[in-house]
Amino acid sequence: MAIAQTRTSSATSRHAGSSTHGGQAVIGAGTRIRGRVTGDGDVTVHGNVEGEVNLRGELFIAEGGRVVSDVNAESLRIAGALQGDVTATGDVAILAGAKVSGNVRGASVTLDDGAEMDGRLDADFVLPRELLGGIGAHDEDGPTAHR
Length: 147
Hints:
Low-confidence stretches: 1-22
Mean pLDDT: 80
Oligomer: single chain
Radius of gyration: 17 Å
Strand content: over 45%
Number of domains: 1
């Protein structure tokens, strides 16, 4: 379950606009979190998060969601906006319409058509032989470039 240490615009609750559904925390549209978001579950962001994000689960930044933070997570899917560096132990998917500004490191990184990315990608990937020009190691799938 994800825990959010927050300062929100609402004085009535430290977790205003957040709810949990079956092991997933949801940060609702219109909610602004300034602080640290940590936890063992998945988090979906429809609102705004500014601060440190550390998850042992997936972070999904939905369309309209915005995160200004460095992110450490098992996996990450971005359909909204992210400003900060990403380190994921698993997959990172930057979906159509996403806007990312920062360096992204993951076991695999996909960048959909229509996504915007300003930063470095750091992942192992296979390049066609014609693009390598004789550089890199060869394996059964073809030449492999490393970071």
